[in-house]
Task: structure prediction
Amino acid sequence: MKPIPLTGPLDQYAAESLKKTVLPLLAAGSDVSFDFSDVEYIHAASLQVLIALQKDLKAATGRSVTLVGAGTRVRELFRISGTEELFHFAESSS
Result:
């Protein structure tokens, strides 16, 4: 599955849209990957959506959400928040 592109800041307003995007993926039991190449910032609300998705996906399928192309700043947020180990990070989708 091609990574779902995310862009700009994933702020508190983007969290609800992100949730609507991921719910059908969970229901389908699909592999889930997001292209973070154009993500500048992640608000705690969007981070919580990603964490919930990861936990649900892991429980249902044993797989991890893949975050592709996350920049240094975004990756640092995952490290500081203690959530980096929950996700699989990839440099590119190929």
User: Anything to note?
Assistant: Helices lie at 14-28, 44-61, 72-80. The chain has one domain: 4-9+31-90. Residues 4-9+31-90 form a domain with the Transcription Regulator spoIIAA fold (CATH 3.30.750.24). The longest helix spans residues 44-61.
